[in-house]
Amino acid sequence: MKIILLQDIVGLGRKNDVKNVSDGYAQNFLIPRGMAVAATEVALKHLENKKAREENEKRIQQDLAIKVIKDLDGKSITIKTKADQRGGLFAGIHSQDIASELESQFRLVIDPKNIILKHPIKNLGEHTIDVKGAGKSARFTLVVEESE
């Protein structure tokens, strides 16, 4: 029996794969548990449309990421935080903090995993930050100042 997998199944296949399995395995195990559906003409057409939509969405997201990275190149953002007398921060600045600051200051939405930090920023001053994503890269300056 031909089926479409609705989730990854170890030893059988990945989500949205079309597989041939025995009738009993499909009807008694996979389909009742919501792990697969029968691969009818309608289901196959639906799967094809779903894959096309996902591919289109992925292309749009990639184009948007490229635009955001180009807009970010060369910019400077400022984060104010508490520090001790020697300029050490009480809490390190992580990529998530930088991403939220980019969104609030420039309205640029960027995934924190695209912000390249070897370690959290723990000192006041200027820091050069690299951003990579969608095959592009950019560099901007992060200025960390002491808040009052």
How would you characterize this protein structure?
The protein is an alpha+beta fold. Helices cover 35% and strands 32% of the residues. The protein contains 3 helices and 9 strands. The chain is elongated and about 70 Å long. The model has no long low-confidence stretch (mean pLDDT 92).
Topology readout:
Elements: E1 2-5, E2 18-20, H1 23-30, E3 36-38, H2 41-72, E4 76-81, E5 88-93, H3 95-106, E6 115-116, E7 121-123, E8 125-133, E9 136-146
Q: Report the strand count.
A: 9
CATH architecture of the largest domain: Roll
Q: Assign the CATH topology of the largest domain.
A: Ribosomal Protein L9, domain 2
How many domain modules?
Answer: 2
| Portion of residues within helices | 25-40%
Instruction: Compute the separation of the termini in Å.
Output: 69 Å
| CATH class label of the largest domain | Alpha Beta
- Residues in β-strands, percent: 25-35%
**Low-pLDDT residue intervals, each spanning 5 or more residues:** none
Key structural traits:
148 residues, single chain, 3-stranded antiparallel β-sheet, alpha+beta, 2 domains, elongated, Ribosomal Protein L9, domain 1, 35% helix, 4-stranded mixed β-sheet, Ribosomal Protein L9, domain 2
Give a quick rundown of the structure.
The protein is an alpha+beta fold and 148 residues long.
